[in-house]
From TrEMBL:
UniProt name for this protein: Putative F0F1-ATPase subunit Ca2+/Mg2+ transporter
Transmembrane segments: 12-32, 44-63
Pfam family name, one: ATPase_gene1
Keyword check for Transmembrane: yes
Protein keywords: Membrane, Transmembrane, Transmembrane helix
C-alpha cells in the first residue's frame, strides 16, 4: 500500500526567483555605485555597466533554473 511520493508543484519552485533576481541586480548596482564613488565618476558609467551585468546574470540564472525544473 505504498503510494508514490507526491512531487511538489513546479510553481512553488518559481516563488523565490523574483527575490533572487532583485538581490543579484541590487548587489551589482551597489558595487557599481561604490566604484563610481571611489573614482569620483560623475557619469556613473560603472553603475550602469554593473547593473546591466547584474540583469544579464539574473536572467541567465532564471533561464537555467526554469530549464532544470522542466527536466524533472
Amino acid at each position: 500500500m505504498d503510494s508514490p511520493k507526491k512531487q511538489p508543484n513546479k510553481w512553488l519552485h518559481l516563488i523565490h526567483i523574483p527575490f533572487q533576481m532583485g538581490l543579484v541586480i541590487f548587489v551589482f548596482s551597489y558595487l557599481g555605485e561604490l566604484v563610481d564613488a571611489y573614482y569620483k565618476n560623475k557619469s556613473q558609467i560603472n553603475f550602469k555597466i554593473a547593473t546591466l551585468i547584474g540583469v544579464f546574470i539574473a536572467i541567465y540564472l532564471v533561464i537555467s533554473q526554469v530549464n532544470q525544473i522542466n527536466k524533472k
